[in-house]
Design a protein that fits this description.
The protein is of the alpha+beta class. Helix 5 runs parallel beside helix 6. About 20% of the residues lie in helices and about 30% in strands. It has six helices and 23 strands. It folds into two domains: about 90 residues, Sandwich (Immunoglobulin-like), CATH 2.60.40.10; about 270 residues, Metallo-dependent phosphatases (Purple Acid Phosphatase, chain A, domain 2, 4-Layer Sandwich). The termini are far apart.
Length: about 375
Amino acid sequence: MEWLLLSVLALALAGCDLAPPATITGGPYLQQTGPTSTYVVWHTARPLRGAVHYGRRSTAEHVERALGARTMHAVLLRGLSPGTAYVYRVSVAGEITQTCRFRTAEAGPQPFTFAAIGDFGSGSPAELRNAALLDREPLDLVLTLGDNVYPLGTAPEYPRAVFHPLGELMHRLAFWPTLGNHDYGDEERRPSRGTAAAYLRNFVLPQHPGRERFYSFRYANADFLAIDSERSSFAPGSRQYRWIDRTLSRSRACWKIPYFHHPVYPEYVRPPASDRVRQAELVRWLVPLFERHGVKLVLTAHEHNYVRSKPVLSGRPDSRGIVYVVAGGGGAALDPLPANASRVTAVRGRFFHHLLVSVNGRRARVEAIDTSGRVRDQLRLAC
């Protein structure tokens, strides 16, 4: 009953109504929004032609048509102005959506705020509450920390797990996701699918260097690295390892923020052997890269709790080190916590939540916000 009431409330509050579901089955939503461009993405039940009508003051100013009849449409709007509000509508088969709004990214190192949420794609009441809070916050972009859908990462799971709970937010903000084990169809007691096909179809991400499985992007004075910790190798010498090393070494951003699914310093109770192996690999191979290249903040999930480390350097608490945050309370069932915290853990808790990170020049504030809107933890960092 609670889930039904929350769903009705979410639909009632929506400010960008869609064409009938028989025509548009997902979207419209934004991807890769930058200072001068964005993608408008939507899905249809059968191959159809469509277009995006957009402008600063009116949707009648410009039109960009999708290429041919298809079921997955991704239209790139180019030549936009930085830090500018736009309106848009999507037309398909003679029907047109209501007007949606978005704002391009600012050019240069302007203050900005982003959210991060992990292990959310369950369609649960907790996910809906997180989504409602995110929709009210002054955000510029959203990171996802993996397990975007449950349980098997298939296309039919996306409406319940992503488009219905988060659709209103996705109309106006770009989501920058990363892959989790469930996005690959990896679940205990079931055979792995291992393709991530639905993830790669629903999200339109930078193709180089990891064919959308890993990528980076710049926003203001921050470089974000979306790392695939599940299937793409990050062992020394691998393509992904070389890319991480190269990207961090070339970055002149004040903030370098890697984000991925598996935690570096978790608070596990009876972890599967595969998780223990993955954690050891992260500590052995990626942590030295992060430390060498001046990373101050790493965001992860997978464990369905909140865990923030102390600043850690070479495996020990050190004020010069990196803060690792596990933000896996997006909506899937919570995990137990061990009786005693790790020596590198600063704060931990068993509650549903998302992160809100405000960046202003060389300073940032990280907040863990539970589904009642309460700030459960807060941290200030400098780069």
